[in-house]
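Minimal example, chain plus zinc ion.
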Amino acid sequence: MSSSFRFLILASSSAGNSAYLTDGHTHLLVDCGLSRRETFLRLQNAGVDPDCIDAILISHEHSDHVTGLGAIAKKLKKPVYLTQATANSLEPGAEQQYFQPIAAGSLLQIGTFSVQSFSLPHDAVDPVGYVFQSEGRKVGVCTDLGYMPDSIRFHLQDCDLLLLESNHDLEMLKVGPYPWSLKQRVMSRRGHLSNDVVSQFILDDLTLRTRHLILGHLSEQNNVPALAHMVAAQAIERRGLGQLELTVAEPRKQSVTFEL
Ligand SMILES: [Zn+2]
Ligand SMILES: [Zn+2]
């Protein structure tokens, strides 16, 4: 049976993050880390009319998630959901009239989607991840976190599709070009997830329900797509999750459209 439930990554890396999700009724944009022009171009490449977007959700204020927000919100004139602290930390602009402050951890209804937000351990003022549910399907978007607390494991249970950060290989980070202070930041409990933490999450938490695991927000200095894929694939094989389709999001390219 064909479905109109679709998920598309427009970009996923420290150079820009943005994703699109629809259940066929409600159309959502998650993060605006690309310019308006590039965001609209990539949506159109995938056959999506940008004017159909009903709402924007923002995870946190880092520039790789909000660079295009002002221009995109002013053009679309649709609600922008984000935590109050995140809203306060952004440069004031005309797009603020569209802001709909939410509390981290709250459950929202946005059109036909129920949207659960959850706090992320990350060095931003009040960062959140999101789980979207509609028509019996569940999609999780979870990047920019330093470790995997039980509360997040709970929210990500039984996602049909999960976009999960697999930011760095610990060895590459240690010997790589970053100054020590930045290495410490990335490795900290408020930094970014390593390939090894993703592997452990697959072993401990993934279930047979998950059809698509997409590894995202890969570091271009401290990771290699083939390595992130191999580490996750080994864990998937050990768990015997034969139904799972594993994809590594190319940092600067849009993904295929995933149908659920
Ligand atoms: Zn980021
Ligand atoms: Zn961040």
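The pocket of zinc ion (ligand 1) is lined by residues 14, 17, 62, 64-65, 144, 217 (CB under 6 Å). The chain has one domain: 6-259.
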